[in-house]
Each structure stands twice: as structure tokens, then as C-alpha cells.
Amino acid sequence: MADLDGDATPFADLVREALTPDGMTYRKLAERMVDPETGYVISSSTVFKVAKGQAIRVERKVIRAFAAGLDLPMRNVQLAAAAEYIGLVADDPLRASTQEATVVVAHVPGLAAEDMPKVREVLAQFASGDGPAPDEGRSGS
Fold this sequence. Notes:
Layout: H1 10-18, H2 26-32, H3 44-51, H4 60-70, H5 74-86, E1 89-91, E2 105-107, H6 117-128
Helix pairs in contact: 1-5, 2-3, 2-4, 4-5
């Protein structure tokens, strides 16, 4: 679904999907949205705003609470909020993730793997062991 500007609303889509079961309300869904780390609770009006594609103040405790209430991994909720609110897509367009490591590339919408040859080159270097270590080049402690 898209908002009035024609932009994707993946975060809102997650909330709308959670509201689809018969009898689910904004209030019932909000009651499940509690940050397990801080106890922060999402209000039903915030759930309503997100479902309608309106902007909210995004903080870690808010994303953790939405993840808990939606019963989704936090990473999924983070990626959906980033795509909706700041216009970045974060995914693995090169299908470089393995069971041992997840590769996430943040990019503007519409880019495909073939549009990212430099990213492919860097990932290939790291995978081969020929590239610098991730912390190499940082100033010392």
C-alpha cells in the first residue's frame, strides 16, 4: 500500500496486517506492544497513526515495542520503519548472506544487484579473505 505521496508504507503495512484478524482493534494491538527492555507501552493512537501511514517519533524502545506486539523479529520492524520514514531499502540484493553471516546493504529504492558492482566487488574481496579486516584502518585505542 502507498500513502498520498505515492511512497511505500512497509511499516504501516505490518501494522495493518496485524489488524486483519476478526476482533483485533487498535487498542488490543497496542496492549501487546510493550518494549521488553524498558517496559515502554505504545498507545492505541500511535498504532492508529502508523496504520494510517502517519509519521511518529521513532526510537529504539518504540521499534522494540512494535516488534514485540507484532511478534516479528526486531530487524524486520527496523527495516520496514527505515524504508518508510527515511526512504532507505536495506536488504541483501546480492544474495550474499549465509547461515553464518547476514549481509545487509542500505540503498535507495529501485536499485538492483546489477546497479551495485562496487558492492559486489567489496563483498567478494571479504569473502575471499583478500580484503582488509572490518576494523583495519581505524585509528587505535
